[in-house]
Amino acid sequence: MHRPDLAIAAHDGQALPTDTCPADSPLAVRGLTVSYGEKPAVFSVDATFPARAMSAIIGPNGAGKSTFLKAALGVVPRLSGEVRVFGTPIEKARDRIAYVPQRASVDWDFPATVLDVVQMGLYRRVGLLGRMSGRMRALALDCLGRVGMADFAHRQIGQLSGGQQQRVFLARALAQDADLYLLDEPFAGVDAATERAIIDVLKGLRDAGKSVVAVHHDLSTVRGYFDHAFLINVRRMAEGPVETAFTAETLHATYGGRLATTQIDEVMLSGGAA
Amino acid sequence: MSAILDALLLGAGYNAALVALGAGLLGVAAGASGSFLFLRKRALISDAVAHATLPGVGLAFIVMVALGGDGRNLLGLLLGSALSAGAGLLLIEWIARRTRLPEDAAIGAVLGTFFGLGIVLLTVIQSLSAGRQAGLEGFLLGSTAGMLRADALVIAVGGTLAVALTWLMRRPMTLVAFDADYAAALGYDIRRIDLAMMALVMAVTVIGLKVVGLILIVAMLIIPAVTARFWTDRSGRLIWIAGGLGGVSGYLGAALSSAAPNMPTGPIIVLVAAGMFTLSLFLAPVRGVAAALLRRRRFQARVHRRQGLLALAHGEPIREPYTLRLLTRQGLIRPDGVATEAGRAQAARVLRDEHRWAKAREVHQDAGLSGRYDGLTPIEEVFTPDEIAEFDRRLGPPVIVGGAA
Asked: GO CC terms for this protein (chain B) (predicted)?
């Protein structure tokens, strides 16, 4: 069952990861280890995400997908490892990154309107003393329009459905006008219409030359949505273009006994049709 | 009565006016800065900060006396209280970060320890300076009796600074309170922003010690914020509403207490704030108890009406007394339970709506639209007239309703 050579095998035809982070990657990680207490959630992981592409971070529950993303962003402290964003340390590239956290990570009874939340994406640009000008407001409204939520701008956020909450978070990230978008399970628990709206926006970003990296749960849509796959289960299991890295073999290695062979076959078949 | 009026209009003497204005300013500062504690769900920490001031008061007194000065110098006492409150705060933060203890446990432990230490120091001071009244007990519940102009100045300057700092930090603090991970991803230093919030609370606590006392300053920080929450759904407004409510309670409370001899200032201020909270709790338009009750009753009536009308349409008997009363009151059935003309018409409409919804679910697999069916929303609110015409075409000619009756 255990195939230690898989991570390397998946790189056939691709350059093997080097010791240093390549400068042309929007997000590259070397030897990243994150630990809660004394149990590593992510152990010595290398990853190189390609520019102008949609990349999926895939793995079972508790495999460290979200932790990997948060550590790359510096939201949770890392025990070891190096993170480079567009070839520079992340502190120098903050303005080029937009993060979309899990929707369930915040209290939606917080006193704010939809527009208030989207404007949070502009706080860095406005600064401590700056005024939220009419131009900034128009920008926020425009971002809401891009996710189909323009009519909801003045709604209290507690009145939104799960899908609408996710769209608001995406609009807040759009307001940052970043070059790299990092999303944590953007499709978890949303309705079909929202999923379509979100994937359209993300593909639009990629086609405009931006890079998208998303933690993704639904194996059946990986082939239809993404260009690049990164499989993780505490360690890196596979990485590369979806066609070569997202295979029955790598899924087996990543999920172990948690996915029946029949399920993997289904995923492969549905992916092939997309 | 006129004594109270005099006090309210600053006519009760120079000292009373000074106290009322100082307490009002303190209230504004406490209400505004306390809003972020409330939004960050860390209201309890202010209790620990307040109790941790006490040993500092005692130590500062001892040091000042030992240096041959006046132990009651307010600035010196406040400086001491700020230092020990800061130590308590850092201790809580350190315990919560370095051990597996949750923050509330750390708060409980630190609060008790510091307060106990403070009480021991105060007792020692009292026994040492037998005969000479140190007057430090005033810091427990507030005492404005001997307030000097310099004291009022301390409150005015400190309060203004606290309000200014709250305004300056409003965006980072809102962001951290709503979504700390996102704030960290934007590059904000969460720990530093949290510490700034705590420092703000500490400053308000220290300058409020003299007026409200350390036991009740918590109420000044938290009650205005939770009261304001009843009146607004936006954090930006919440801060200033809380500041306004705090200012009004501080001013009113201090004025009222000065009108009656020997009334403690702090408790009266807190009671005024609590009065406004209670009013809001019941009467606030959307989040208040009365509004929620009314909403619930209306909703219940809609459900019963719909169920009753559907029963009429299907020719079934209505058994629930509430439904019977409701339909009778609306003139839809006669007291003996038989549908009136209007009742039959309404029943037909409701049945038609049900049929249309059933068709809508068949035609529109899109959960976004047909998922809106909750048995209460008229179909006209969700679909356009041409879509409804299409459902009707598929439904065929209308069915005679209540034919058996």
From this structure: ATP-binding cassette (ABC) transporter complex
A6-273 has CATH 2.60.40.10 classification: no
Would the pLDDT of B19 be above 50? yes
What distance in Å separates the CA atoms of residue B147 and residue B150, rounded to the nearest whole number?
Answer: 8
Ranges for all domains in chain B classified under CATH 1.10.3470.10: 2-282
CB-CB neighbors (< 8 A) of A117 in chain B = 178
The 10 Å CB-count burial string (b at 16+, else e) for B259-276 is: beeeebbbbbbbbbbeeb
Answer whether residue B401 shows pLDDT above 60: no
Tokens read off for A193: 């219409």
Which of B40, B42, B233 is the mutation pick for testing A, counting most A CBs within 10 A? B233
Chain B partners within 8 Å of A116 (Cβ): 234-236
Residue B2 has pLDDT above 90, yes or no: no
Yes or no: say if B313 and B344 are a contact pair by the CB < 8 Å rule: no
Question: Mean pLDDT throughout B264-282?
Answer: 93
The model's pLDDT over B58-101, given as tens digits with 9 standing for 90+, comes to 999 999 988 888 888 888 999 999 999 999 999 998 998 888 88
Instruction: Return the closest-CA partner of residue B93 out of B233, B199, B209, B168.
Output: B199
- Kindly give, in sequence order, each residue whose CB lies less than 8 Å from that of residue B211, ignoring residues fewer than 6 positions away: B19, B22, B23, B26, B142, B144, B147, B155, B250, B254, B265, B266, B269
- Residue type at position B292: A
CA distance linking residue B30 with residue B247, whole number of Å = 8
DSSP, res B149: H
DSSP classification of residue B404: T
Query: Looking at the DSSP assignment, which residues form a beta bridge with residue A48?
Result: A28
**pLDDT means over runs of 10, chain A (274 residues):** 44 50 88 88 94 95 93 93 93 94 93 95 87 90 93 89 92 96 93 90 96 94 94 93 92 81 72 45
Domain spans of chain A?
6-273
Contact A91 B39 (CB under 8 A): no
Alpha-carbon gap, residue B21 to B27, rounded angstroms: 10
Residue B259 has a pLDDT of 81
The closest CB to that of B186, out of A94, A106, A182, belongs to A94
Residues in contact with B261: Cβ distance below 8 Å, sequence separation at least 6, in sequence order: none
Residue A39 has phi, psi (to 5 degrees) of -115, 110
Which comes out higher in pLDDT, residue A114 or B3?
A: A114
Q: Per-residue pLDDT averaged across B177-199, rounded?
A: 93
CA dihedral B203, B206, B207, B211 (to 10 degrees): 140
Section B96-121 average pLDDT: 92
Q: Does A73 touch chain B (CB under 8 A)?
A: yes
Largest CA-CA distance found in chain B, in angstroms, rounded: 103
Q: How many CB atoms lie within 10 A of CB B201?
A: 27
CATH of B2-282 among 3.40.1280.10, 1.10.3470.10, 3.40.50.970, 1.20.1250.20 = 1.10.3470.10
> Among B175, B229, B233, whose Cβ lies nearest the Cβ of A123?
B175
- B402 — pLDDT class (breaks 50, 70, 90): very low
Confidence bin at B287 (pLDDT 50/70/90):
confident
3-state SS string for A137-177: HHHHHHHHHHCCCHHHCCCEHHHCCHHHHHHHHHHHHHHCC
For residue B41, the chain A residues in CB contact (below 8 A) are: 107
Q: What ipTM is given for this predicted complex?
A: 0.89
What is d(CA B16, CA B3) in angstroms, rounded to the nearest whole number? 12
SS3 for A195-256 is HHHHHHHHHHHHHCCCEEEEECCCHHHHHHHCCEEEEEECEEEEEEEHHHHCCHHHHHHHHH
SS3 A82: strand
